[in-house]
Amino acid sequence: MQQLLEIKHLTVNYGKIVALENASMSIREHDFIGVIGPNGGGKTTLLKSILGLIEPTAGEIIFSKNLEEGQSQIGYLPQFNKFDNRFPISVSAVILSGIMGKNNRTRLNGTANREKVKQILEQLSISHLANKPIGELSGGQMQRVFLGRALVANPKLLILDEPDTYVDNQFEHELYKILQELNRNMAILLVSHDVGTISAHVKSIACINRHLHYHPSNIISPRQLAAYNCPIQIITHGDVPHTVLGTHDHEHPHEHQHQGK
Asked: Helices 139-151 and 169-182: crossing angle, nearest 10°?
């Protein structure tokens, strides 16, 4: 599979605070990587570094030709969307804004725009909300709309930061079905605290608690989490299957490996 980007020895400081240290990982086509770790561990810092929203203190991120021009082929759903719900804009217009290119010009013509937005509305089961003002939506409906905005430009890499925030149980189930379908055409990097849920859907896991530890497996046990200095809990019904993963070496981070599914 073609490599989309490579993270090499990335370190990010906020003043004297080290948020991310010596992180290395690569992302390839059709990857579906779940990113886990404690609050303040550096998960969002990693995402913002990839998106070019913050400058690293050391290290680098090397983009393939598909992604290098302003990361225009990366779709992003942030954990919290700062949006004035009093602004008089429709659901369709918000989704359409994801196609906006440089100088606020859309990258598709009018007919193609309408068809693409219609397709996204249908895919996310929100066609009935197309002309509804954004301020009249529930939290779960808003997340569907913002996910639509992230998808409308057909990104090669989709980045999601806690996408199940504010969503109802029904859409949470639908969300992962949608993501698995999308993964046929794009790589996905998904931040979540819900290890029990994402392990059934992602292909591999990256644990981040200042250091980044990549695992080619999609299953991780509570004992391993403790050993890898990822102090989060797995909550699930019944037994959680697990695999034995290699130990971490801070001095010599192992290379990103892949496992077919």
From this structure: 10
